[in-house]
Amino acid sequence: MIPAAFDYLAPTSVEDALAALAEHGDDAKIIAGGQSLLPVLRMRLNAPEVLIDLGKIDSLRGIRDDGDAIVIGAMTPHSVVGSDPLVAEHAALISKAVEHLADAQIRHRGTFGGALAHADPAGDLGGPAVALGAQFVIQGAGGTRTVGADDFFVDLFETAIGDDEILTEVRIPKHTGWGARHEKFVRIVHQWPIVAVAATVRVDGGTIAEARIGMANMGSTPVRARAVEEALAGQPATEDAVRAAAERADEGTNPPSDLNGDADYRRHLSRVLTRRAVLAAAGA
Ligand SMILES: Cc1cc2nc3c(=O)[nH]c(=O)nc-3n(C[C@H](O)[C@H](O)[C@H](O)COP(=O)(O)OP(=O)(O)OC[C@H]3O[C@@H](n4cnc5c(N)ncnc54)[C@H](O)[C@@H]3O)c2cc1C
């Protein structure tokens, strides 16, 4: 279907975009890469009167080193994030997840911030974001605030970004030297995961010193596998130890049932994928 008619604005600064949001209120919608929004408009599940395109705001694009964090501009395309050496060195889990995200065309148009703002619990970036403790920088008329990953994802397709606010950048604390692995289970290649597990692990002398694990499609938001993280700390990086800890992957989760698999199947997948991801990240 063709979307309902809308007016199109392309501001060149965040301030102008915020002013347009304030002027048009509920009638307006932000568009980034359009890879999730345009299908919604074409199905007429939403019909905003005004689209505010962030594509001409240069300050929202780019990746920089900021001491203890890597900062990724919201409008940075997935393809740029996926091939960036700073991200690969300090937040390898992000690079690995982007490799698995959709196909080359969608990675070219779709943006890092757009995918996280969309907050699809099946999205590939939510797991790495919660695992790495991402910080979301959100700008509104009153200024800028920073929200941690645990508070950013509120519910299905719902984040802490207010209707009159814009996600400007995401700060990823550096995890330099940590092993990383993204395990994604799909029925059709280039599609959203039935379950995905993002694991990053710091190994010290054959012992797992720290592990951080985020999962997609195991609830209405991306979830941390905290029980596994706790069980792994101080354990040897061996198949037996990791297998035992991974059995706890679904603790505290609430996976959906749908045509791709029921909740029990997803629980099983979370345990298997966690074992594989942690073993690979630990180099075991
Ligand atoms: C066929 C197909 C397959 C896909 N497969 C996968 C997959 O395997 N894994 C995966 O993770 N994703 C997948 N995607 C989604 C892809 O990652 C999109 O790029 C992403 O979900 C949305 O990013 P976008 O920049 O296109 O945002 P848009 O579609 O432009 O926007 C998405 C939503 O976020 C809001 N928004 C965007 N940017 C901001 C901002 N800076 N501040 C506030 N609100 C904002 C918009 O208003 C809109 O509600 C797929 C998409 C398609 C079409």
From TrEMBL:
Ranges for region Disordered: 244-265
Entry keyword set: FAD, Flavoprotein, Oxidoreductase
Gene Ontology MF terms in the entry: FAD binding; oxidoreductase activity
Coiled-coil intervals, chain numbering: none
Pfam families: CO_deh_flav_C (PF03450), FAD_binding_5 (PF00941)
InterPro entries with a match to the protein in the record: CO_DH_flav_C (IPR005107), CO_DH_flav_C_dom_sf (IPR036683), Diverse_Substr_Oxidored (IPR051312), FAD-bd_PCMH (IPR016166), FAD-bd_PCMH-like_sf (IPR036318), FAD-bd_PCMH_sub1 (IPR016167), FAD-bd_PCMH_sub2 (IPR016169), Mopterin_DH_FAD-bd (IPR002346)
Taxonomic superkingdom: Bacteria
Record protein name field: Xanthine dehydrogenase family protein subunit M
